[in-house]
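Q: A reviewer asked whether we had any structural model of the full assembly, not just the individual parts. We don't, so I'm hoping you can provide one. Inputs are below.
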Amino acid sequence: MTGNRYKIAIVGGGPGGLSAAAHAARLGVAHILLEGSPAHANTIQRYQKGKHVMAEPGALPLRSDLGFEAGTREAILEAWEQGLAGQQINVRYGAEVIGIQGAAPDFSITLKDGTGVSAEQVILAIGVQGNPRRIGVPGEDLPVVQYTLDDPDEYRDETIVVIGAGDAAIENALALARQNRVLIVNRSDEFNRVKEGNLNLVLKAIEDRRLECAYKASGTCIERTTDGRRYVLALAGDQGESRIECDRIIARIGATPPRRFVESCGIAFPGPDPAALPVLSSRYESSVPGLYVIGALGGYPLIKQAMNQGYEAVEYALGRTIAPADEPLLAAKLKILPFGLGVDDTLALMQAKIPVYSAINPLNFRELILGSRITAPGLGEVIFLKNDYTNSFFSILAGTVEIEVGEERKSRLTLGPGQFFGEMSLLSGRRRSATSWAGAGCVLIEAPRREINRLISSVEGVRRVIDEHFIARAIQTSFAPEASYDDLKAIAASARLRRYKPDEVIFAEGDEADSLHLIRSGSVAVARDIGGRDVVTSYVAAGNYVGEMGLVSRTGRSATVRATVTTETVSLDAATFHQLLQKNPGLRDQVQATVRRRLAENTRMEGQPQSGDLISFLMQQGLGEATDVLLIDETLCIGCDNCERACAETHAGTSRLDREAGPTFAHIHVPTSCRHCEDPHCMTDCPPDAIGRAPNGEVYIRDNCIGCGNCERNCPYGVIQMATAAPEKPGLFNWLLFGAGPGPGQAKDPADQDDRGPKKAVKCDMCRDLGGGPACVRACPTGAAIRISPEKFVQLIHDTTG
Amino acid sequence: MHQSVLAYGRSRYLWVALAVCAAAVAAYALDSPGVPPNGGTGLGYTLGTLGAVLILWLMSFGIRKRAYASRAGTVQGWLSAHVYLGVSLLVVVTLHTGFQVGWNVHTLAYVLLWIVVASGVFGVLVYLRYPRLLSNNRGSQTKDQLLGDLADLDARCLRVTAGMPAEFGEALLANRDRTLLGGTAFALLAGQDRSQILLPATGGATVLYQALPNPDQAALLDWLGHRLAASSDGGLSRQLQELLSLVGARRTLLARLRRDAQLKAWLEVWLYVHVPLSFGLLAALIAHVVSVFIYW
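A: Here is a predicted structure for the entire assembly that you could use as a starting point for your response.
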């Protein structure tokens, strides 16, 4: 190839792109690696100095012409740097790609500088970080502007302008303000959509004049001062125009997600859901022939996965066949099956046998099975117990499974091959609603929550089938244990799935009672207007229903029901509900008993005006989505901090709870500690899927944590920290008699506190490895600390305010 | 849901302790050793052994409290038993003495026991009462937040004085720097305010400053009040009014901080008696037991 035409063009110089380029170079294929930033592995370059980068998943072998093993950021970048030089990789830095047109074998790639590159095949490895949004004013290309901040302590005695009003901008501005004069430029007249902690800190810093803030202002141009040493940012806003002389401008105004760019290349997505992944073949080929998508953009966020795919994508682009690196892992997993076929054929057969998986593309299915467990439980073996907190999703490959349904009159339901179960807990995050047992010849695929959620958001067919089943089973569990599945299906067809934002009203007092809501996830607060004041009378968790009172009595709504957190309900219209009542004579009694119980509860709560305030308080603390929360009774707490010490001592020296921090109301204190959310925010974006949920509810972090800090950022309650393990402590008597090392409950010696080893995410794990319950509660000498589930809030409130 | 140490497990250790006491009293009443009751009779040895075992077990609470991973009951359960059985020790040991006391190591152990138990009972009372006071006083704020508020008020005071004659700025700075929280153990426990302030002395040609006691910001408020009464400058008066309200808020905040420290001090101070003396008791107990066997 000559000039600007290559066999393979690789877009993105991260791990996937580098590995692809290295392989192309070793094979002697004409290639070019296009990287938008001035250096390779942009994302990893931005990690803090000395950060330990891990190489998960440990079991997956590395297949690349570049080296990679767990180590410091510097060591890894250095290894790649050497690889780049040694392999004679053709790389062009600062080459930001703005368009890819065409299809194999004739792609034309347009760069930001106006030049172009043509290639027969393209490998897209741009990750998901996106490009930072630019200021968009004349002078934005001057070296004074930067879009990231690695180490705020590097700057001292400078005048720095931070543009943006999000969490990143605030955190940067506050950190820089310690040693510099900092102006934060906010386009709006307040800071909204930021974490409450950051909001308080920034407002206080502005009030204390440690930080200047220009509200309702935006930059209009940037130029050099006449002596050329400093720069001037012109600002326009409500207060007129002003010119700020500064040494540095840091723009933190978000990033453009890469999706629009990817779509502009012609790559199809299965749906509008932002979490949806591009449609790919099992050879990473997108809907555009010859355009391959690898790494995080294709749904593989780990470095090793991306590097393997880079290697494999080059092989595929050259028309060769190569078994993916995970082949041996899959083969081992599938050994238990009696089919006697190769991996690909076995996977195809499995997809054919289980209808819910038939709509998935082979690549996603492969990934699903790689993350799943395939088991053959013996006859009568329990698969999960009612009230377990597990949330995996089971499908039956062979044999049968029995599930117990119904509250009072229990009956067993038999499921056969191709059917699935476990979707109730998967979707609601609540406990298992029924016990299940293995039948004869049972072979199961147990898929983890994350993989299924990914499918639900990417594959419309999967979402629809699972939703339909969920609705039918939810109705069956709550109202019609004896109904046949066909009956239920008809009812489910008329039911609607509804989604409410926090604080959104589901129905208001006085409205016509036209439907009943089964709460599928989240929770709601019930409030009544008493003497012109909105008094919260009760809290209803997922798995229960609301709105029955109006339907049974055929009157208007007797109370207002609001979502406390993001809540999903299955709503049944009045006609369907009455039809259900007629078909099931037992149901009427059951619903009436619920109505009576709730009326009694309401009367009791209305007699205690403070109780409603306490419920509101607990809900404001986000406890509406908690499954198990630490509450301290301040009338008993002597402030000895034995809870924190017990936590630190049983968890490698770092306490996962902060007793004193957190709000208090009516002597009930909510310390900063994990509340084990039903749909944990921390789990949303964990690259190695290291966050798990155990049968008794605790959300815990496994050892394959790579320390990326996503969970820490995603937790709205600030209960996750990044920490290194403390050194071993001496025994009690060694300390007592010989003064060896820090004693029980004492912190490690500050001299030893330099960060040894990698930092990993730590949080409350409910002392799952300890037995006997959480150490904080067990170590409380006065009984002030308890851990309770939300079902017990009403009792707590009654005890506290009664 | 939450229950106090005394109510733990439906006060089951209260019943255990009462049973121990009742058994000891009954045995004492029924026993007729033929000599005046004392520690050397059969019952005396039995009660003595029981007492010694109880003391060792009560002291092991300190180990249990620090055995954070222990599965041997909860610390609250242990404390509940510690309290009730600790009090029952008075009955058991008193009966062991046969009401014989003297100036010797045996009686020393007995007296130490009383002091340890009495300090423990005091501790229980404090634990039952003070947390609620502490919580009421603190509101929903932590100590660090209260201190943050204080720093905030100080900064605001200084901002106001920036536009006033220098003496105000100096007075407010001196007030900030000479405000004392805590201090000696006594001041802490009594909630005493030994803060001072430097104020311009009245009279004389040159301005002299004198240090004055300033409990509850009284001297400063008084001085500012006088200045306000004497002021005829509208701008200055407004600034003085603002200062007065800031210093008033500061007084309330300081009182809350001092009260917080005071209550916390009381929650801890009894342990400085209870724990060392229980080790003293252990030493005296060993001396008592050894001497009894040597001089048999």
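A: Points you may want to mention in the reply: Residues 628 and 789 of chain A are 4 Å apart (CA to CA). The radius of gyration of chain A is 29 Å.
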